Amino acid sequence: FNELDKVRADILVNMAFNMGVNGLLKFKKMLAAVEVGDYVLAASEMLDSRWSSQVGNRSIELSEQMITGEYSYDTY
């Protein structure tokens, strides 16, 4: 986490706030992908989850930010 850029760290904080740290820790494949810098795979794992269907468009926005490392125009 400490090695991540601000955008990707904020995504993990956002997800932890939404579902709790324990919920975030269940995203083992996503977290492993983040750890090695494979942000495309991390984004794919984010979208392939029940969380994604629960938060709808927010998951798409966050997954795009995970890939690009940039906030979308309507964030912050």
Account of the 3D structure:
Helix content is 74%, strand content 0%. It has 76 residues and is an all-alpha fold. Helix 2 runs antiparallel to helix 3. The model has no long low-confidence stretch (mean pLDDT 94). The longest helix is centred in the first third of the chain and has 20 residues. The protein contains five helices and no strands.
In short:
The protein has 76 residues and is mainly α.
Overall SS class? mainly alpha
The coarse overall form would be: globular
Strand content: under 5%
What composes the largest sheet?
A: none
* Average pLDDT taken over every residue: 94
Number of helices: 5
Report the span from N to C terminus. 20 Å
- The number of E-state strands comes to 0
Low-pLDDT runs: none
Radius of gyration: 11 Å
Order of helices and strands: HHHHH
Percent of residues in helices comes to over 70%
Oligomer: single chain
